[in-house]
Structure formats: C-alpha cells, structure tokens
Amino acid sequence: MMTTSMTAAAAGQAAAGSVLADLVVDWFGAHARELPWRRPETGPWGVLVSEVMLQQTPVHRVLPVWEAWLLRWPLPADLAAQPAGEAVREWGRLGYPRRALRLHQAATAIVERHGGSVPDQLDDLLALPGVGSYTARAVAAFAFRQRHPVIDVNVRRFVARAVEGVAEGPAAVARRDLELVAGLLPADPETAARASAAFMELGALVCVARAPRCGACPVLGHCAWTAAGSPPSTGPARRPQGYAGTDRQVRGRLLAVLRDATDPVGQSLLDQVWDEPVQRGRALAGLIADGLVVECAPGVYSLPT
Hints:
Elements: H1 2-31, H2 44-53, H3 59-72, H4 76-80, H5 84-91, H6 98-114, H7 122-126, H8 133-142, H9 153-164, H10 175-184, H11 189-205, H12 224-227, H13 247-260, E1 265-266, H14 267-271, H15 277-289, E2 294-297, E3 300-302
Antiparallel strand pairs: 1-3, 2-3
Helix pairs in contact: 1-11, 2-3, 2-8, 5-6, 9-11, 13-15
C-alpha cells in the first residue's frame, strides 16, 4: 500500500513538473531575450565563456566583453597561446578577475586534453580547471543540448516558489535541489535543455527577487507560493556587499593601472592609487597570491606573463 502511494505521489509530481515545463517553454519561445551566446552558430567555447562571465555579473555588462573576447580568441587554442596576463587585461572591469585566469587555465586544459575542442561529457567538463558543477551542467545543456539540471539563483528562486511554496531557495545547491529540478525537465534532451534555459529566463525577468511580476507569469495558476498567499522569506536578510573603501576596490584600482600599462609598473605609480599604505599593501599581496599580478623585480609589477 505504501509503495502504491509513493508511486502515485511520484507520478503526480512528474505530471506537475511536465505542466510547469510546458508552460515555461512556451513562454520562453515568445519572451526570451536575444542574447548572442544563444545563437545556433555560437559554439561550445562561446557558451563556456558566457557562463563564466555571467557569474555574479549582469548581462548588460557581460555583452561587450564577451563579444570582444570571442573576436580576439574565437577558439580555446587562441587564448591558450597567449600569456595569462592578456586574459586579465581583456577582462577589463568586469569584476572578479580570477575568472579570467580560470578561463585561461580551462582553455589550456582543453587544448592539452581534448585537442582544442570543449568536451561534451559532464565528467570531462567538471575536470576542467575552474569549472564547477553549475558551469559544467550549463555548458552540457546549452552547448550540447543534454538533459542536466542547471541551477543558478534565478532557477533556485523560481523552483522554490512554484514547486515548494517558499519565497527563496537555499543559499547552496544540494543533491536534493538537483534531483528536484531534474524531475521538472522533459525526458527529451533537446526539450530539457530548452526548459533549463526557460526556467533561468523566467527567474531573471518575471520571478525576480523583489516585486515579482506574478501577473505576467505563465505558471501563476500552478504556483504553490502564490497559492499559499506569497509568504515572505523566513531566512535572514541578504545584505548586498559593499564596495567603496573595501580591499576589492583597492585591488580593482591596482589592476587597472597594470592593465593599462604596456610595461612593468614601479611601486611609486601603484602607491598613487590609494592613500592608505597598509590596505594598499594587503590588496597588492592578495593580487599576487591569486596569480593576477607578478613581481618581476623588487618593487616592479606586471600582469602574469
């Protein structure tokens, strides 16, 4: 009897997931943004670059950098042939510049292990330097049209509301979350990949964190959160990270000087970017430890070569 009940519950969940996916995929067909990494002619390398750049960074900031990056390095081998410092330079002011080093490391590994072609197997993607679970699954789904749960903050929020009836999902993605989202995906890999993109887009444009546009949501009639009265989040408030006066700001200013320089830069020039010597020294030491800056002679610095 218990087995019958569990089977019925699983079947009901699968049916509900199918309805959600169908509705969101139909909405996606009419409302998806025209983004260059979604074009059919964009290869797996372009998708990988976009996924790394989009981490914690809005689309409008990524677009010009992505386009310039792919124009300069259309293949992984093109980037791997350049010094790592050129990746940092091209990254510009996109933020979190260690991602540039990770892309350079991934490009090098792609050339050495896979003959210059981005691998299409999830395990091989996960083995690339700097490629985590989210990025590997996103590339497998969006570049190779495979059936994998892809969970970013937008998908997590949409699923938490529509399926679980709560305002927000957990801060970290657990196996349970992967299984839950996988259960919502259609069985056909191509349709599942499209559903993954659709869930993400709906979370980014409609099921937003503040003031969600529920009236424009295609799953409004099936949303557990609105059915429960749209209860507020019960977790602690997430405060946005400050920037002004932080080590991140100092690091950014130091890197800007080195990016703009064609030759190594002396300490005296770096000293001009921030008045407080202790914080400036700590920021510079952090950049060196992260591999973003090298000391090529005592008191002389450059991007990694």
